[in-house]
């Protein structure tokens, strides 16, 4: 053959007897070899290349010639296999006809071998004729230069163009399933690319190292027209995008819930506020009812307010965990009917006539706070309530009272914001833990962490909600035999992952949105364990989690930061 065979799994395949000759593809309109200039002058040597003949041929008739690519396994290219199986070989193979008539592939050996493996009957080939006047070593040098250039000078599509094309195909009527199958991708990736392809901001960031998951978050908000969310997300480093996105999601959910709770008051004629206004100063712009009285000196009641609702504004505030409700039905439950001694012990029987603490949960209550705009006071039949002097200092007392009101408002807002962050952190953390528990083996830090947790609290796994939370994090649906079945069917390493899941589930079940207030050694160890995970499971603690982990003071958290 004039050159040594490649060391990869290749074969010289003689054409079967009686096979039809190669099918010629309009050879007159095929461009000349790329190694020639527009004028036909050969770039590497004097003289020109012969005209390329374009044919469709059985890949079994091709011989894999010497190739610079020697180290590969076809099984490392499953997506290429699927592509060729469905669409055939799209990029023509380059082969050179030898003096004996055989066709030696010099570019496209992997495409050729995959076509053979998946059973493609015909492949497109550009055939040139070997120049026998060129010495063998010179011919091999030229071939290797062409092979290296063919491999190194391929220009991939940008991720942004890729996403835009996916979005366009869906807009043109292709289904997600069809595009996913045609591109050998998961449906979730196609959906993410489709969203990104419609978002100028996400497209712009796509080639800057951000993950599809993070960019889909930005794209979803941009496609909804939420420019504030987009502005916050696009300035975040990649490791903070998920953290900020979860915060925004909780904020938006809270805003929707507040709006829903406000609709009743709007229907009654009240103006609805989206934020609690300041009542600072002795003559605030928004006057709370406790600063007002009737013309006869009586206190302002709800009946007074509702009787002239058009003059009043209402802000619906959330009273954290104010209601106790049945976990199944959502109905209000009398706190005195619950045996609170059964908390954290699912196996303990409640006292006679009482219900188990496991059967109830706390929920927020939306409470209206009323304000009268100062410009509505005239004609309302109300007046500012006079302050009684304290030690003869009337103004100082009024000023102090206003400062106290403002401090209380700021404190309420701070608690709301930190709790929102706590809820966002919990949702993000549970997602990260579920990803960790999909592994075939536990991380190296897990053994010591599990040992510490069980030694610290020997009843940890029997606490309320421990197993249900663990099952949810492990992705196990069957509540009766799911955990035992999973353990029995697992390898030793996977069984240890399940043990880790039981411990993580027990600890996670004890953490709610107020974790920033915690001083729990078990919770601190849990959060520090997550923060110590290595790539690709690296988990960055939110500020409220850092406070719970004892790494910073909750009072230092800037609630107005993104």
TrEMBL record:
SUPFAM superfamilies the UniProt entry points to: KorB DNA-binding domain-like, ParB/Sulfiredoxin
Organism taxonomic ancestry: Bacteria, Bacillati, Actinomycetota, Actinomycetes, Mycobacteriales
GO CC term (a single one): chromosome
Composition bias, Polar residues: 1-10
Region (Disordered) residue spans: 1-20, 333-359
Protein name according to UniProt: ParB family chromosome partitioning protein
Acidic residues bias (residue ranges): 333-348
Gene Ontology BP, a term: chromosome segregation
């Amino acid at each position: 053959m004039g050159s040594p065979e490649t060391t990869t799994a290749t074969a010289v395949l003689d054409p079967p007897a009686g096979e039809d000759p190669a099918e010629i593809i309009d050879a007159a309109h095929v461009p000349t070899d790329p190694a020639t200039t527009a004028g036909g002058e050969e770039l590497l040597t004097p003289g020109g290349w012969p005209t390329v003949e374009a044919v469709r041929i059985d890949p079994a008739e091709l011989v894999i010639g010497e190739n610079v690519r020697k180290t590969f396994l076809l099984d490392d290219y499953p997506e290429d296999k699927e592509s060729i199986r469905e669409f055939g070989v799209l990029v023509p193979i380059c082969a050179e006809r030898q003096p004996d008539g055989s066709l030696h592939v010099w570019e496209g050996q992997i495409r050729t071998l995959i076509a053979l493996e998946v059973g493609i009957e015909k492949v497109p080939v550009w055939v040139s004729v070997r120049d026998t006047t060129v010495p063998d070593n010179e011919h091999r040098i030229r071939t290797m230069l062409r092979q290296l250039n063919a491999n190194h000078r391929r220009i991939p599509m940008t991720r942004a163009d890729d996403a835009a094309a996916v979005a366009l195909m869906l807009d043109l009527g292709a289904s997600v399933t069809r595009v996913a199958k045609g591109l050998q991708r998961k449906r979730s990736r196609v959906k993410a690319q489709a969203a990104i392809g419609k978002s100028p901001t996400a497209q712009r960031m796509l080639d800057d190292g951000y993950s599809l998951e993070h960019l889909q978050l930005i794209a979803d908000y941009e496609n909804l027209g939420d420019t504030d969310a987009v502005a916050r997300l696009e300035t975040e480093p990649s490791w903070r995008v998920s953290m900020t996105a979860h915060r925004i999601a909780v904020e938006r959910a809270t805003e929707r819930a507040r709006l829903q709770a406000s609709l009743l008051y709007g229907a009654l004629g009240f103006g609805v506020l989206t934020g609690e206004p300041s009542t600072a100063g002795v003559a605030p712009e928004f006057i709370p009812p406790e600063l007002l009285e009737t013309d006869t000196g009586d206190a302002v009641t709800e009946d007074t307010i509702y009787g002239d609702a058009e003059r009043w504004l209402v802000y619906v505030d959330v009273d954290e965990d104010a209601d106790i409700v049945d976990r199944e039905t959502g109905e209000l439950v009398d706190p005195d009917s619950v045996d609170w001694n059964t908390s954290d012990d699912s196996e303990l029987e409640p006292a006679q006539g009482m219900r188990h603490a496991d059967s109830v949960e706390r929920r927020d209550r939306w409470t209206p706070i009323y304000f009268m705009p100062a410009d509505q006071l005239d004609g309302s039949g109300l007046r500012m309530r006079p302050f009684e002097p304290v030690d003869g200092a009337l103004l100082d007392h009024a000023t102090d009272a206003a400062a106290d009101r403002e401090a209380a408002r700021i404190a309420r807002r701070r608690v709301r914001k930190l709790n929102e962050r706590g809820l966002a952190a919990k949702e993000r953390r549970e997602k990260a833990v579920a990803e960790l528990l999909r592994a075939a083996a536990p991380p190296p830090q897990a053994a010591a962490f599990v040992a510490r947790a069980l030694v610290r609290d020997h009843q940890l796994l029997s606490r309320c909600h421990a197993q249900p939370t663990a099952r949810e994090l492990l992705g196990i649906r069957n509540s009766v035999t799911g955990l035992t079945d999973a353990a029995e069917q697992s390898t030793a390493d996977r069984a240890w992952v399940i043990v880790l899941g039981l411990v993580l589930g027990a600890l996670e079940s004890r953490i709610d949105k107020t974790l920033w207030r915690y001083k729990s050694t078990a919770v601190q160890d849990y959060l520090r364990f997550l923060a110590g995970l290595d790539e690709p499971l690296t988990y960055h603690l939110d500020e409220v989690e850092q406070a719970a982990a004892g790494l910073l003071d909750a009072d230092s958290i800037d609630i107005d930061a993104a």
